Amino acid sequence: MKNTTHSFLIIFGILLMFLNCKAQTSSPNAETIIDRIKENITVEWQRETVDTYKGGSPEMKITGIATTFLATMDVLKRAKAKGLNMVITHEPTFYNHFDTTEQFEGDSIVAAKQKYIKDNGMVVFRFHDHIHQTSIDGIYKGVVDKMDWKKYEQKQRPYIYKLPEMTLKELGNQLKTIFNTPLIRIVGNPGMPITQVGMVLGAAGSARQINVLQREDVEALIIGETHEWETVEYVRDAVTLGKKKALIIIGHANSEEPGMDYCASWLKSFISEVPVEFVPAGDPFWTPN
């Protein structure tokens, strides 16, 4: 009887250890998730970066992960409804690049968003700098896949694509269909034939955008957004001077959100304990018919 009891206790102890290990395996904390990301990017994690926690804390247990372009209130609510309490967002949560909230003291919108994150046990982490810097840039990878432009890539000229000849208007219509939006804006001659198209996604700034447009092998440039009095006017003057140049503005969200869809697939390659799902924020703009 004594040996039987002893054997039972041993088996019971092993079972408890197994269940404890399984529970730990199935419920990683936020720090574990971020450590996995750091292990799987191809660059060193920067000390100075916007890729930090915007809500929640590293020790919080994670039930699921949502990737998104923006951690909007709508995205937070949909992630919560899906049981995804960690939101990995590409862009800021609190309306400026560094997510500083001092200027919003007493603001009811910021306070409500912070309260929702806290009350619902959510973690919000930004993944901006390092997804761009890793090889390959995850944002461009997602966008190129969505556009099915990999076949147009040129190894010696990254982010410049050699397309079958078409007019600028035809390319604009293709992009409207790809991104399912009526809001694409174009500067340039609609009938201009083009084959060489560059991409500078997001809001990279006019200096980088104009630098690409200055290349002889770039006829049209696709961007997310820009100051309208900078890159836009550079192209307008170029057109007036008879240069073969054009600018296509598809919107910041359209130009980067597919990258966070790809991010979800990438995360699944090394995170299996919890579900990972892309939750789109979508383009915030609409236009009257």
The structural domain count equals 2
Reported for the largest beta sheet, the result is: 5 strands, mixed
Helix-strand pattern: HHEEHEHEHHEHEEHEHEHE
What class do helices, strands and sheet pairing give?
Answer: alpha/beta
Mean pLDDT score? 93
Beta-strand residue percentage: 15-25%
CATH topology of the largest domain: Udp-n-acetylmuramoylalanyl-d-glutamate--2,6- Diaminopimelate Ligase, Chain: A, domain 1
With strands numbered from the N-terminus, the spatial order across the biggest sheet is 1-4-3-2-10
For the record, give the distance between the C-alpha atoms at the N and C termini, rounded to a whole number.
84 Å
Shape: globular
CATH class of the largest domain: Alpha Beta
Question: Keywords for this structure?
Answer:
289 residues, Udp-n-acetylmuramoylalanyl-d-glutamate--2,6- Diaminopimelate Ligase, Chain: A, domain 1, 2 domains, five-stranded mixed sheet, 10 strands, DUF34/NIF3
